[in-house]
Amino acid sequence: MKKAESKLSLCIALIAIILFASIPLWHIDLNSARTQTHVVKKKKTKKREIHQVTWGYPFKRLYEKKIKFKSGQKFGQTDVIRRYYPTKSYFHDGYDFGFSEVGHSTVYAVHAGTVHRVKYARGLGLYVWVISDDGYVEIYQEGFLSITDIYVKKGQKVKLGQKIGKLTGSHIHLGITKTDKDYIDKKHDHTPCKYYWKDNGTWLNPMKIIENDLRKAGKDPIQ
Q: pLDDT higher for 191 or 172?
């Protein structure tokens, strides 16, 4: 009886093995037992370019506190008449920094360049005329009472923030333009004052140029 049971168990086991072996391999998901891995592609991040400051204020006090300039000191159309003849003009070709706002203090270069001329002219007083390699022209005028108040000379290269001189008069006028064939006024002893009364694009807003450059570098201007 026991032998018969053993044979029966053996037959059942063989049948089970045969049936399992006959199952097609494609029914078995071989990947189900594997841990699925995902390839994560790293995103290429662009390096943020750091803007190098190339413009700055002519006085340190402008970095330290907010100064409210009067209309007549600002660039553009003002409430102060600039020219009577042949037509009236209220256009101001630069920015005036008065000693009441900035003090009788050091004047600093607002942009790098080469000193083109240090001279006196009627209406301008002693002035420093700088021409930059990128085509800009900077004029510092009306604020120096003596030649000893000016620290630079013709042909000298100046860097941003370098000492130009000292404000000893009532104010210093900063004018900025671009170099072209008309940036010298031959009628006024070759001084950089052509079209000072006319808003024709010759003259540019100094504060706008300076502050836009500071913002690009992530430095919020106080003005």
A: 172
Q: Which residue reads 């070759």 in tokens?
A: 190
**110, 58 contact by CB (below 8 A):** yes
Q: Tens digit of pLDDT for each residue in 70-84?
A: 999 999 999 999 999
For the question of whether the overall pTM of this predicted structure is more than 0.90, the answer is no
Q: Categorize the per-residue pLDDT at 136 as very low, low, confident or very high, splitting at 50, 70 and 90.
A: very high
Prior bond of 86 cis (ω within 30°): yes
Structure token digits, residue 100: 């009441």
